[in-house]
Amino acid sequence: MKPRHEPQGWSALQPPPGYYSADGRPPDAMQRALILDWAVSQRIASGWRVETRAETQVVMVRGRPLNHVLHAVLTVFSCFLWGVVWLVLGLTNRVQRSALTVDAMGDIVSVNGPGRNTF
């Protein structure tokens, strides 16, 4: 899967002003859930998927691990020609994880997991 670059200023991305209280109070649990839903929908639009979800935190993933059993079978049946494709896929395939959290003030905090190769 070809890695996509995040939009400029992604880490500072906050929902529109209508998601917050007009009088400046911290958001309640329902407003925090709406803020988190908004952030998740933004990430889904750029190719991420939800791995786990809690009340105020979501772990999102982009990329898929290789199916090594399938590639091993294809390599054997193609007289080891498929091994080149398997090697290239193994070196270029990445799985990325990101945790989105809404804090008590309604700010979205994003923590990226380490980029790792799945080969």
For the structure shown, list the relevant keywords.
3 helices, 5-stranded antiparallel beta sheet, 119 residues, alpha+beta, rod-shaped
Folded structure, characterized:
The protein is α+β, with helices and mostly antiparallel strands and 119 residues long. The protein has 3 helices and 5 strands. A hairpin with a 3-residue loop joins strand 1 and strand 2 (57-62). It is rod-shaped.
Secondary-structure blueprint:
Elements: H1 29-45, E1 49-53, E2 57-62, H2 68-77, H3 82-92, E3 94-102, E4 108-112, E5 116-117
Antiparallel strand pairs: 1-2, 2-3, 3-4, 3-5
Oligomeric nature of the chains = single chain
- Flag low-confidence runs: none
Compute the gyration radius: what is it? 19 Å
Average of pLDDT: 84
Brief summary:
The protein is an alpha+beta fold and 119 residues long.
